Amino acid sequence: MMKTEPARAAPALPTDLQSPRAKLVYLYLTTNGDATVSEMGDSLGMKKLSLYSILKTLRQEGMVDCEGDTYALN
Hints:
CATH class: Mainly Alpha
Number of strands: 3
Radius of gyration: 14 Å
Oligomer: single chain
CATH topology: Arc Repressor Mutant, subunit A
C-alpha cells in the first residue's frame, strides 16, 4: 500500500494584491524565500525594470523588505 502525503495548501495571497504580476512576485518569494531582482527576473521571465516597480509597490505596502540587493517577505 502506498503512503500518501498530506496535500499542501497553496500559499495565501494578501487580498489587496490586485496585479497578476505582483501576485506572481509575491508567490515566488513565498516559495523561494529571499531572492535578488536578477534571480526573480531569470525565474519569472520578467524585465528588471518591471520587477523594481512591483517590488517598490510591495515595499510601500509593507509586504516585502530589502536588504542590500536581496528581497524577502515581511
